[in-house]
Amino acid sequence: xxxxxxxxxxxxxxxxxxxxxxxxxxxxxxxxxxxxxxxxxxxxxxxxxxxxxxxxxxxxxxxxxxxxxxxxxxxxxxxxxxxxxxxxxxxxxxxxxxxxxxxxxxxxxxxxxxxxxxxxxxxxxxxxxxxxxxxxxxxxxxxxxxxxxxxxxxxxxxxxxxx
Length: 163
Hints:
The chain is mainly α. It has one domain (45-163): Orthogonal Bundle (Cytochrome Bc1 Complex, Chain D, domain 2). It is built from six helices and no strands. It has helices at residues 2-17, 46-59, 61-64, 99-108, 126-137, 142-156. The protein starts with a helix and ends in a 7-residue tail after the last helix.
C-alpha cells in the first residue's frame, strides 16, 4: 500500500512539471533553450546595459513601453498608414536584424521604413545608441540572442545579402 501511495505521489509531482509556465516573463528566460544550445557571449558590458536603461527610459519608453514590450498590434498600420512601435524585447522582429541595421534605424529613425520613429542621430552619440541597444538585447533570451548572433556574423561577413 505504501508503495502504491509513493508511485501515485511521484506521478503527481512529475505531471506538475509538465504544465505550461504562466509567468509572463518566462519568454525572457532560457528555460526553452535546448541543454546543448551554444551560449554566445554578449557584445556589450553590464555598464552599457545600466547606461542604456536610463537612456531607453528617457528616449524610447514613451513609445516602445517601459519593458520594451511595444504596441500589442505592432504589425497593423494605424489610421495614417504608419506601423506602430514594435516590441524590442525579443518577441517581435528586432532580433532579425544585424547590429548595424539596428544602429541605422535608431540613427535615421523609422520613417524611411514605414514607421514613425524619429531620428536620434542629432540627439544621441554612437556610444549612447549602443548602450540603448545593449539594454534592449539584455531582454533577449540566450536562444534568441544566439540566433541573432549567427545572423549578425553572417551579415557582417557578407554571407547574408537579403535583409
